[in-house]
Amino acid sequence: MEVARYSELTPRDRADAQRTLQANAVDLDLEKESALPHARIWVSRLEGQSVGCVLVVWAVADELQIMQVATRPEFKRKGLADSLLRTLVNHARQQRSRWLLLEVRQSNSPAIKLYEKYGFLQTRVRRHYYSNPSEDGIDMALKLEP
Ligand SMILES: CC(C)(COP(=O)(O)OP(=O)(O)OC[C@H]1O[C@@H](n2cnc3c(N)ncnc32)[C@H](O)[C@@H]1OP(=O)(O)O)[C@@H](O)C(=O)NCCC(=O)NCCS
Q1: Is 115 tagged catalytic?
Q2: Is the separation of the CB atoms in 130 and 105 below 8 Å?
Q3: What is the pLDDT of residues 108-139, one digit of tens each?
Q4: Residue 110 to residue 36: CA distance in whole angstroms
Q5: pLDDT at 1 over 60
Q6: 3-state SS assignment for residue 111
Q7: Which listed site, 14, 90, 112, 130, has its alpha carbon 20 to 30 Å from 24?
Q8: What is the Å distance from ligand 1's center to 33 Cα?
Q9: Contact, 44 vs 51, CB < 8 A?
Q10: Cα-based torsion angle of the residue sequence 19, 23, 27, 30 in order, rounded to the nearest 10 degrees
């Protein structure tokens, strides 16, 4: 596979990154997210190709909340989300965040396996947290040592 490149979202990437979310039925407006002072958005792109994976994070106090991560269907299982997660964990350590947090659908085993690979633990079940379809949510957390 071509070498993937990681960078923060630029206005030029936005429409392409939005398509990656849409292809995964993710309802998140990247234009609105980009305008939030506490939001950071990273993308991975394969050389000469469009955005393959999008990661949206909110920084709140000493916590980083993963709002979304999604890979374009044709680029799945090629290590793109893996590399973005590694980039995020390194970034979190550098800026001395204490926690990485997220919520995920209970049935979303690809995402749960991805987070567990990085040491996230399941901390709480939120009954009927999601709708359309209704489903429990799992809180996951990774504590970063100071
Ligand atoms: C979850 C998701 C982001 C993974 O993206 P990806 O780029 O295909 O993932 P990678 O190829 O980097 O895989 C990294 C790790 O994730 C896990 N994983 C990813 N897809 C998996 C699958 N279909 N089944 C099991 N584990 C999976 C594995 O642990 C994998 O590590 P491994 O290759 O060493 O086994 C992708 O499936 C996706 O876009 N899902 C839809 C959006 C979504 O549900 N986001 C999560 C919201 S909380």
Answers
A1: yes
A2: yes
A3: 999 999 999 999 999 999 999 999 999 999 99
A4: 28
A5: no
A6: helix
A7: 90
A8: 23
A9: yes
A10: -20
Residue 85 burial (10 A CB sphere; 0-12, 13-18, 19+): buried
Report pLDDT for 130. 96
Q: Is 118 a catalytic residue?
A: no
Tell me phi and psi for residue 97, to 5 degrees: -70, 150
Residue type, 102: L
In short, whether 106's Cβ falls inside 6 Å of ligand 1 is no
Q: Dig out the tokens for 55 from the structure.
A: 């990661």
* CATH assignment, 4-143: 3.40.630.30
Give the model confidence (pLDDT) of 22-69 as tens digits.
999 999 999 999 999 999 999 998 766 678 899 999 999 999 999 999
Mean pLDDT of 76-101: 94
- Domain residue limits, the chain: 4-143
Identity at 113, one-letter amino acid code: K
In the reported structure, the alpha carbon of residue 113 is separated from the centroid of ligand 1 by a whole-number distance in angstroms of 7
Reading the block at residue 106, the tokens are 């209970």
Q: Which of 79, 139, 62, 58 is nearest to 105 (CA)?
A: 139
* Residue of 6, 63, 103, 116 with catalytic role: 103
